[in-house]
Amino acid sequence: MNISLAGVRFEEVSPRRFIATVSKHELRKVVEAVVAEDSYLSNITAVDLPRDGKIVLNYVFWSIKLRAAVIVKVPVDKNDPMVPSISDIVGGAVGSEIEVYDLMGVVFQGNRELKRGFLAPEDVVARGIYPLRKDSGV
Amino acid sequence: MVVVEIPIGPQHPALHEPIMLRVRTEGEDVVEVSVNTGYNHRGIEKLMEKNSWVRGAYIAGRVCGICNAVHMQTYIQGVEKLMGVEPLPRANYIRTVVMELERIHSHMLISAVMAEIVGFDTLFMLIMRDRERVMYLKELVAGSRVHADIHTIGGVKRDIDEVRRDRMLSELKKVEERLKYYKNVYENDYTIAKRLIEVGVISKSDALRMSVVGPTLRGSGIKSDVRFEDPYAAYSEIPFNVVVRDKGDSWTRMMVRLEEALESVNIIRYALEKMPQGPAIPKTIPRSAKPGEVVSRVEAPRGELVYYIVSTGGSNPYRVKIRTPSFLNILNTTSVYLGHRLADVPIIFASYDPCISCTERAVVIDEKTGGRTYMSLRELARVKAL
């Protein structure tokens, strides 16, 4: 079974797991539609893919109405890792966005709380590296 | 008006998550709270990428001392999906028993800590005494009071025999009796009611917007429980009630936990009595997984625990993301403290189920000059008339 939210088709890859890949320009529109299904943001998982030169952000929502996890995948360019923040739509996104910025170096435009050293230790921050990137050397 | 910044945290003997709340107060009223983190970042996600699938299970079990079995369950059920392994039916029941025992002792721990914070030390001692019974039960089934380490890919590492099962069932009766007594204390005690009721209210709509999980979410009237919505282990075969209350204050969250602990007793009893026959310990353990991604969810005592596991094939995971329930519950609720008294801050914080401490020093900020002076709490107490 598939569902459609904000004109984007979500495919059911396994029971109660819906996935769609969207561009960063569509992200906010899709998130608004997902949140309208009584969803909370469960987490943002960033995966570094150095071979493709991309970092993929997986926004995992749990929808109480649909009784399913709705996963929005957003690939961003690793050389210019910018994506619009969704923290004004989902208040609970602030912490997750700071975490991804601190450990993966993706900038969430519009989130004013972004800071280094939120979780990463001081010496790692001082060296200016993002520890969860595959080429960080950590 | 002088704004006083009081750092609460990050270290305390009872802290399982070292964290620091910077509380700004005007007189007794809280005007701003910010959270400082990073005191205990151990790089576990990175560590998992560098270790094999099997070793990862033990790393997952060491993320948290209190809820080690749920971490192992979340990791292992994700890995089982990637490996295409179906866990043995009897093992699923044993896993459920261990996880529910964990829920009971975790809820008893926070009920004890909350009693201590409100100044009811006798209740703290009594609950901690009876919590030992639950630790003993965990030892009976897993062989260890704290770290169960009973999960393995495809099953469990230790079966349960009839003798131990009967001993557990009789011990459970005593635990149930004590839990009912403590629920009654929380329900009817005047001091607890005075300190907890209408303190730290989270409304239904705020709870979803803030993305809080677990008893905090269910205490705000939203019926969301992974065991019920997204069943794992043996939960699809065991009847149980999802406890929901709708007032959203600190007292309600504690009541949700105590009722849930009683519900857990029923789940354990059912699982022990209706446990299917057959093997529980797998003969072989696979070492490599197929490429793929999996979102693994479990209802930990504090709420939804999520592992996002990415595999590119081979013997190691490519990426493991762990999101613990306290991450959402602590970081997203700083606005709840506003307007409350300073003395309410520990209560609200504890009602999300972490622990808290107070350090010796406070910072006084002169709003006009921005200058900072450090002084001890004792000095601060003498300068009331600032």
Describe the structure.
The complex is a heterodimer of chains A (138) and B (386). Chain A has 3 helices and 8 strands, in the order βββαββββαβα. With 138 residues, chain A is α/β, with parallel strands linked by helices. Chain A has one domain (2-126): 2-Layer Sandwich (Beta Polymerase, domain 2), CATH 3.30.460. In chain A, strand 5 (54-63) and strand 6 (68-77) form a beta hairpin. Chain B folds into 2 domains: 3-39 and 331-382, no CATH class; 44-323, Cytochrome-c3 Hydrogenase, chain B (Orthogonal Bundle), CATH 1.10.645. The longest helix of chain B has 29 residues, at 89-117. Chain B is globular and about 70 Å long. Chain B starts with a strand and ends with a helix. Classes of the chains: A alpha/beta (138), B alpha+beta (386). At the A-B interface, strand 4, strand 5 and helix 2 of A face strand 6, strand 7, strand 8 and helix 12 of B.
Count helical runs of chain A.
3
Gyration radius of chain A, in Å? 15 Å
Q: Helix content range of the residues of chain B, please? A: 40-55%
- Compressed to H and E, one letter per element, the order of chain B equals EEEHHHHHEEHHHHHHEEEHHEEH
The CATH architecture name of the largest domain in chain B reads: Orthogonal Bundle
Number of strands of chain A: 8
Q: Which term fits the overall shape of chain A?
A: globular
Shape of chain B: globular
Q: Number of domains in the coordinates of chain A?
A: 1
| Structural class determined from secondary elements of chain B | alpha+beta
- Strand order, main sheet of chain B: write it out: 3-2-1-9-10
Give the second-level CATH assignment, the architecture of chain A. 2-Layer Sandwich
Which ranges of chain B are low-confidence, i.e. pLDDT below 50, for 5 or more consecutive residues? 355-370
Give me the CATH superfamily of chain A: NADH:ubiquinone oxidoreductase Nqo5 subunit
How much strand of chain A? 35-45%
The profile of the biggest β sheet of chain B is: 5 strands, antiparallel
Structure summary, number of beta strands of chain B: 10
Query: How much helicity do the residues of chain A have?
Result: 10-25%
Structural class of chain A: alpha/beta
Low-confidence segments of chain A: none
